[in-house]
Amino acid sequence: MRSVLISCVLTWASITAAAGETPFAAPMANPLEARVGSIAQFGDQTLRLDIGASFDLSEIFRDTVVGWLRVGTDVMTYSRLRSEENFKLPVETIDFLFGFNAAWSAPHAPLHARLRLGHISAHLVDGYADEAGTFTRQRPFIFSREFAELLVGWTAGAVRPYAGGTYVWSRLPRRAEPLIPQAGVDVRLPLTTSLELRGGYDWKLLGVDGLYQGTHAAQLGVFVEMWNGRGVLVSAYVYDGRSIHGMFFDQHDSYVGIGLQVQM
User: Fold this and answer.
1) What pLDDT score does 16 carry?
2) Judging by DSSP bridges, how do beta strands 195-208 and 252-263 pair with one another?
């Protein structure tokens, strides 16, 4: 019940958040970004549900000398659901992320950056248990991390490459390595006054027990503007690498899906 209540609050906050420009646009394919939407995964009858928002709380400065700086907050959940008969969608696992961010763009160059400080916790949910409520496939454990993430991007027309990384200064389990290099690219190409092609690719290097593995996420779709910059993105999504869910942080996850996402 608590998870459902938090998800409802985040959905309301996301939809009512004001649309507008920002110094650093969120990387499109990065799984750990605030979004409202779902991705139906082909083959394994599972559904990824993301509910969250990123708010700019204050504009520190905006001028032609030092650039543009805003600070804000991030709140989000990302969960895995299982599709069953009679439209049942048991929740198997859910992750919570919250924190603060600072986004900056240069005054006379297409250079921009974002720093995030955040906390992530993960939990198994009753949809992963058997009929008696026992977790037989995997026992729950404490998954928690506090991190700092820095990304730097450069916009060149419709393309925006970015690179950076994450340092996790506090983590449980300790088996997860603290340094996470990251790089990617976003593309936004207007098709008509209300249609835009949006795509992205995100790469991370995630380590467990000293063994690092590349993690790849890609998304491509068409954004349909409904009103005042807000609309719906219909897209295909590909993921291959270590799972985004903390309860399965040391397991490999690979899927292709199609999703619907509200964007502002």
Assistant:
1) 37
2) unpaired
Task: Record the tokens describing residue 187, joined without a space.
Answer: 């593309």
- Between CA 163 and CA 251, with CA 170 as vertex, the angle to 5 degrees is 70
Q: What angle do CA 132, 95, 53 make, to 5 degrees?
A: 135
Its CATH architecture, for the domain 2-263, is: Beta Barrel (2.40)
- Where along the chain do its domains lie? 2-263
- Rounded to an integer, what distance in angstroms lies between the CA atom of residue 249 and that of residue 52? 21
Is the Cβ–Cβ distance between 115 and 132 less than 8 Å? no
Nearest to 217 by CA among 71, 21, 35: 35
CB–CB of 191/199 below 8 Å?
no
Asked if 189 and 146 touch (Cβ cutoff 8 Å), the reply is no
Quote the tokens at residue 203. 């790469």
For residue range 84-133, list pLDDT tens digits in order: 776 678 888 999 999 999 999 999 999 999 999 999 999 998 877 777 67
The owner of tokens 């959940």 is 77
Contacts of residue 142, Cβ cutoff 8 Å, sequence gap at least 6: 172, 173
pTM of the model: 0.88
